[in-house]
Amino acid sequence: MKKSFVTGSIKAIAAVAALTLLASCSSSSDSAAKVKACLALDTGGVDDKSFNASAWAGAQAAEAAGAEVKYLAATSDADYAPNIKKLVDEGCNIVIGVGFLINGAIVEAAKANPDTKFAIVDQDGKDHGPAGDQYPGAVIDNLQGIEFATNQAAFQAGYLAAGYSKTGKVATYGGLNIPPVSIFMDGFARGVAYYNTVKGKKVVVLGWDVAKKDGTFVGGFSDQAKALQISKNFEQQGADVIFPVAGGLGAATANQSMTGGKSVTIWVDSDGFVQAPQFASVLLTSVVKGVGTSVTAAIQSVIDGTFSATNYLGTLENQGTFLAPYHDLESTVDAALAAEVEQLGADITSGKVAVS
Amino acid sequence: MNKFKKYIEETSKSIALPLLAFFLAILSGGLLIAFSDPKIYKLWKSPLEFLGTGFASAGHAYLALIQGSIFDGNLTSKNFLLGFYPLSETFVVAAPLILTGLSVTLAFRAGLFNIGAQGQFIFGAIGASYVGFHYNLPPVIHALAAILGAIVLAGLWGGLVGFLKARTGAHEVIVTIMLNYISVYFLLWLLSTQTFLRKGRQDPIAPPVNENARLPKLFGMDYRINLGIFIALGVAYLIHILLSRTTWGFQFRSVGANTLAAKTAGMSVPFVMTSVMVICGALAGLGGAVQVMGSEYALTAGVAGSFGFDAITVALLGRAKPLGTVLAALLFGALRAGGLTMQANTTTPIDIVLVIQALVVLFIAAPAMVRAIFKLKNVKSGTDMAAKGWNG
């Protein structure tokens, strides 16, 4: 009885193995000259509703232009290098690293595989030497850095917030004091200052000091309780527009806006009206970072044969960053203010107004 | 000859359970893979196609798992030996896992449950990284110094647990879990300080480890496999000797088997507990050193991955024996390395691999269930581990 069960299962296993061997031999010969674009994601996973999700959406948008796209997610930092190697071995024409932590592995892979194109989101994509301390680094011919001038859209948001505020106080806070975060806060604060100069007002910004380059930070991107506390404190100090720059922690602030009813929230990275519709009633606008747009552009450049190591800079002009529509709160925004904000965007692009 | 036969019999009895547990885990994992493929839900009406599709997607996934952990014919186009690249990756992942696994194994044998390998790994990584990037020493000496830094730091961190247990009776499970949290946040804080911040970067990554402090690669630049795997195997042998051939090891086992008897026999229980935890810490710390010096070359916030937690599984699967731990770590290394390929070649999410690992533990933790399923008698269910529950 027992014996027959064992031999039976061995036969079954052998049969399955034989079947799959046959199947795998027959199914790998239909790749034409399509450009294969591959994403190496970080540990956030493809459905993080933020960074990785935007990048993957951008890659899928490039599918329409004739690219074959795929992604690999990582479970820990140790997976980055093997994942990238796998994508290179598989014959990906361009490998895009999503997230600053992947930078090291991408730079190494780019140097080792000159025939494959690479891009890295949120880093300059330069070789900073063996000790990582040579600035500015050397250009790597097959690696494109993707960076964003998010301070342009944040500047608009600051101007908007200053004009929108009834209390004359607006606030911002960040996850960590790192450049991809502080650039938003700096732009926001300068936008408020610009409003004050133009209008002769004295709107106060809480949470960021332009001169000291420091301000209010949660200390990470996952502590909802602390983000909520910061938001409450801002409200108590009289701020009625709050701009959290801490990824998903914006939900804590938007929650406070909804329950407290004393403030509105400006969402960050993606259009909050779409990504977090439950907060639609308190979202004034969103400062969008076009990770998806940049990924689409990088893949498109490979399809067109125009890829270069010159960095992609997301600006208002190329829609790499922009202010989202006001959606549900449109009726509360003064039409004249809305027009000024739009004009401000054009002035930033033309260089008439400096954002930093 | 008779002795040899007896040995084989004994061994086959004691490995039967882990093997069967693994088989069950693979089987249920296969079901999960099959049902995670959305195609299959459209085939309810034709049972044959339904089964075929299910078998095919599970088979594809497991084939990719093997391709990603042992040999991949697709990589042989330039050089046949490159086909073994996946095997080398298995060793790369296994090396730190062997060391953290040994840390848990050794603690088990002395009656302690070391949940703290994760924290000890982090401290080892910190020690190796700091010595590795801050000093400029000649080759070999620099690597040895970095390893020493890791062992000392992690040894002290582990020893703290043994000391607290021996002196105050604080339960090592609670202490190690809490120390894990402290380690993680200490690392995050450390990576924000000027000393550990890489120039020009604001994100949590330390400067790269100097060339001289890196572990040499074994088969050239095409493979990531490095000396770490031999360090791990050597250390595993040393632990085997320690446990089976030395007085010190006998003391460890005695305290593990019966604290009171050991005390009556004149052994110093506090000394044994502290010293065993120092070694456990050093072992896990060495794992951290191998990771930083062998494959990652830089300290990051996520450097420890889940090496310290997988170590518990590895030690359980290895039945708290050095050889078993090595084999279990190699298996887990293969699962991790192969999991990446499984994700790349099929649509199976990498999380399935983690589920299979969890199932292995589940089945091992329930020997009665495995025995019932396979209608087994006479299979040794006890392990050599002596860790006890709350009253130990």
Automatic annotation (TrEMBL), chain A:
It is found in: Cell membrane. It is a lipid-anchor. PROSITE patterns: PROKAR_LIPOPROTEIN. InterPro entries: BMP_lipoprotein, Peripla_BP_I, PnrA-like. CDD domains: PBP1_PrnA-like. Keywords: Cell membrane, Lipoprotein, Membrane, Signal. Residues 41-307 form the ABC transporter substrate-binding protein PnrA-like domain. One of its GO terms (cellular component) is plasma membrane. The keyword Repeat does not apply. Belongs to the BMP lipoprotein family. This is Unannotated protein. The lineage of its organism: unclassified sequences, metagenomes, ecological metagenomes.
UniProtKB/TrEMBL annotation, chain B:
GO terms for cellular component: plasma membrane. The chain crosses the membrane at residues 15-36, 48-70, 90-108, 115-135, 141-161, 173-191, 223-243, 264-285, 297-318, 325-344, 350-370. It is a multi-pass membrane protein. It is found in: Cell membrane. GO terms for molecular function: transmembrane transporter activity. Keywords: Cell membrane, Membrane, Transmembrane, Transmembrane helix. It holds the Pfam family BPD_transp_2. Its main location: membrane. The keyword Protein biosynthesis does not apply. InterPro entries: ABC_transp_permease. This is Unannotated protein. The lineage of its organism: unclassified sequences, metagenomes, ecological metagenomes.
